[in-house]
Amino acid sequence: MNTEIAIVGTGPFGRAIISAAIDAGHRPRVWGRSETGRQCVRELFDDRVTLCESLEETCAQAGMICLAIPASGFYDVAMALGAWLMPDQVIVHGTRGVSEGFARSSQILRDVTCVRQIGVLGGVMFRQGNHAKLIGGMLASRFDDVQTTVRAMFHLDAGRLHASDDVIGVELCGVMGHVTEIALGLAEGCALDLSSAGVLAAYGLADAARLGVVLGARRETFHGLAGVGELLPRHGSASGRHRALGKQLGQGIALEDALNTIDGEVEGVMTAREAHAFARSHGVHLPLVEAVVLALDGVDHMADVLRTVLCGELAWS
Q1: N or C: which end of the chain has fewer CB within 10 A?
Q2: Would you state the pLDDT for residue 264?
Q3: Residue 139 pLDDT > 80, yes or no?
Q4: Do residues 140 and 171 make contact, with C-beta atoms less than 8 angstroms apart?
């Protein structure tokens, strides 16, 4: 087995993956666009990693490639990988967003590369900060070899990666989790109580499950770690950015102004719009997603909109 590991991405999640690979006795090859992220990797890991100058240098000879990058850059990276990857390589990703047309990251990889051994990291929990550590989550793949390979190449600080073959379900839990986080921020900005916010989280899972079933996912996936794990608070992470955006929208601040105050990508904005369009084209009602889109569009009286969601039927199908 080729034990060479390539990691694309030097943000907090990427650094958690790097640490897990090093703790398992590997020296990963790493690439990232951000010079700030690259410098952080140099300072944290020194000669325990190989920092590469190009994507091809990083990934071409690797047995496993882990993509820890935002959705906005995923298609371009996948297209570049498609030029020289081989069918026997393994790719796993933890991207929590979609591309235009509600295209999921695993779908993009299948469309533009020859790799079929694809895995999705979901419900992933990792400690924040410079010394980020991967502590558990889900690994979804239709291939047993992917499960075996990833477990051999990562050491978790605590917990484990639980196996699933529901790639679509685990991927959608992560994607739609950010939309739910915006809704929870909206509830805070509108001064709704914590109990109401908790019920809105259940509506978020129900929306994700209805969408997932249309795409071929299993409904029970959304009731497990992949679904519930995405709603666990992770301060300072993408989760916090989405809540912060929702809170400002709930307070009446315009979307562009709110985004200007947030450092980092807020993938749930595009996800909400793309999910809404996809659901409408397939005749699927997603009440919480619709409420988030209204907030993104600057609709007034968001507290009343959220109360309408809370008064509606909590339907999982």
Answers
A1: C
A2: 85
A3: yes
A4: yes
| CA–CA dist 81, 97 (Å, integer) | 19
Q: How many CB atoms lie within 10 A of CB 291?
A: 25
Tokens found for residue 111: 């469309």
Query: For domain 168-311, which CATH number applies: 3.40.190.10, 1.10.1040.10, 3.30.70.3190, 3.40.309.10?
Result: 1.10.1040.10
How many angstroms separate the CA atoms of 3 and 62, rounded?
A: 7
Q: Are strands 161-164 and 5-8 parallel, antiparallel or unpaired?
A: unpaired
| CA distances, 117 to each of 4, 92, 114, 148, 162 (Å) | 16, 8, 9, 12, 17
Q: 254-285 pLDDT, tens per residue?
A: 999 999 999 888 999 999 999 999 999 999 99
Give me the architecture of the 5-164 domain, per CATH. Answer: 3-Layer(aba) Sandwich (3.40)
pLDDT per position as a tens digit, 25-59: 999 999 999 899 999 999 999 999 999 999 999 99
Which tokens is 28 given? 């990963």
Total residue length of the chain = 317
8 contacts 55 by C-beta, under 8 angstroms: yes
